[in-house]
Amino acid sequence: MTTLTLVQGDITRQSADAIVNAANSSLLGGGGVDGAVHRRGGPAILAECRALRASRYGRGLPTGQAVATTAGELDARWVIHTVGPVFSADEDRSALLASCYRESLRVADGLGARTVAFPAVSTGVYRWPLEDAARIAVDTVRATETEVERVTFVLFDERAHAAFAARL
Length: 168
Ligand code: ADP
Hints:
- The protein is of the alpha/beta class.
- Helices cover 39% and strands 20% of the residues.
- It has one domain (3-167): Leucine Aminopeptidase, subunit E, domain 1 (3-Layer(aba) Sandwich).
- A six-stranded mixed sheet has the order 1-6-5-2-4-3, with helices on both faces.
- The model has no long low-confidence stretch (mean pLDDT 98).
- Adenosine-5'-diphosphate (ADP) binds at residues 10-12, 22, 31-34, 36, 84, 119-126, 154, 156, 160.
């Protein structure tokens, strides 16, 4: 049984076995969660991301997939980088957003992580509507078989927190 909990705040201040980063496919950092993870986590994370690019992801990490690095200075053992889809009004990309949560949990299981913190993937720069993103996030985590004991959704602001609370 996985327990789902909600927190409002900065995911880089969370303590968990694994913290999920809403990365972009370059793995080289960006704004939002990604910027905060690298800023607070320090250069070790970026160095590992660069190595992953050189070895396995020369074309970038595909949307919907996830990969782990160590967590640098963060209060976590690993950062799991996942690439959310950009929201599109013309094309249903929700399977890709669901895949981010499922694949992140699969990577967490591979590492032996028992507590995982997720941000609201794709709801920032990638513009996914919050209510729909909350539905996909909560329903996917609930439907995924995993050894992870606690999943914490870390929502940056009141609006995102309310959307996730409503779905939970
Ligand atoms: P994406 O590119 O996948 O949309 P963003 O990082 O731009 O990712 O935003 C994802 C969500 O994370 C947004 O709801 C944003 O408000 C929120 N967010 C931004 N910074 C942080 C942070 N430090 N901790 C938790 N959530 C954050």
